[in-house]
Amino acid sequence: xxxxxxxxxxxxxxxxxxxxxxxxxxxxxxxxxxxxxxxxxxxxxxxxxxxxxxxxxxxxxxxxxxxxxxxxxxxxxxxxxxxxxxxxxxxxxxxxxxxxxxxxxxxxxxxxxxxxxxxxxxxxxxxxxxxxxxxxxxxxxxxxxxxxxxxxxxxxxxxxxxxxxxxxxxxxxxxxxxxxxxxxxxxxxxxxxxxxxxxxxxxxxxxxxxxxxxxxxxxxxxxxxxxxxxxxxxxxxxxxxxxxxxxxxxxxxxxxxxxxxxxxxxxxxxxxxxxxxxxxxxxxxxxxxxxxxxxxxxxxxxxxxxxxxxxxxxxxxxxxxxxxxxxxxxxxxxxxxxxxxxxxxxxxxxxxxxxxxxxxxxxxxx
Length: 366
Ligand SMILES: Cc1cc2nc3c(=O)[nH]c(=O)nc-3n(C[C@H](O)[C@H](O)[C@H](O)COP(=O)(O)O)c2cc1C
What we know:
It is a single chain. By secondary structure, this protein is of the alpha/beta class. The chain has one domain: TIM Barrel. 33% of the residues lie in helices and 16% in strands. It contains 12 helices and 14 strands. It has an 8-stranded parallel beta barrel with strand order 3-4-5-10-11-12-13-14, surrounded by 5 helices. A two-stranded antiparallel sheet has the order 1-2. It is globular and about 55 Å long. The model has no long low-confidence stretch (mean pLDDT 97). Bound molecules: flavin mononucleotide. Pfam families: Oxidored_FMN. One of its GO terms (cellular component) is cytosol. GO terms for molecular function: FMN binding; oxidoreductase activity. This is 2,4-dienoyl-CoA reductase.
């Protein structure tokens, strides 16, 4: 097995990466009142110094009163939070890295365990976060129009602060995904409908607004997942044909890179082919794609939240698919959360030094 293709440079519009390893976005909740601290800056700078090609920030929320359910999740708006992010990107660049924020609106959420809640009700496509659980209100036309603008504003701020790209969080059952999913979108206006294509209008409008505010040359990544945290087996696109129509629509709206979230990257997306989600997305759209999900680790991340530990595992299947051209970039979550030098250890074949992942790693920023 050779990892040589993992360490080839990658260039696309504003992105100029030294290798194909992408730090996956991971919420850490170490930003009191939404402001990223010095510790947050040094956490990301260590991954840059450790030769991660592209760092995607933890989800950072856009300027809507109810875009977050956690006061320690960073904002991507407001003077103090943006000054915090300015410091983050300066430190990452000084350490030789590249980075984009993952801009996020959570949509309808459960209340935070601390009892904290935003000053207005949660807002979503409908009042539902999953079948049978409502906790907020369906957005009206004005809410939707203002939210679309807020995504655009956050992306424009990312560009102004000097970030290398922006990622729109369209996955995992949060706001944009609540529009995609029929179980959480019962709207009868232009943002709802029986088909996935109809329910994609909100995402399309967000992407177009982001593009309008950042221009042609700033790389836009869209993160998608078929699965929801309340339904691992869900498929928004149930067939290759449906996926073709969906991703083509999103690509035409202005996506440069599809970040295809799976819990285990080796799982085929549809019967009859071993292609995974990122493989299909690249085949369908011709766009660059990022794969992700249990790279270099034995167990998947949602089980890790429940306390299951993971040990390092081989990259053989990953490199087979990368060498075959299935995807361009490789997202790595927990392995990089616990070890800032993971990329260097892989490059230099220091496998004996690789660490696993256990839930305790979440307690601090290392
Ligand atoms: C602590 C933690 C926080 C996460 N937060 C986010 C997030 O803010 N946004 C997101 O899109 N995915 C989030 N994820 C999912 C990761 O980006 C990634 O897809 C997942 O961990 C699978 O990659 P891995 O198996 O390499 O860890 C999170 C995962 C972890 C472990």
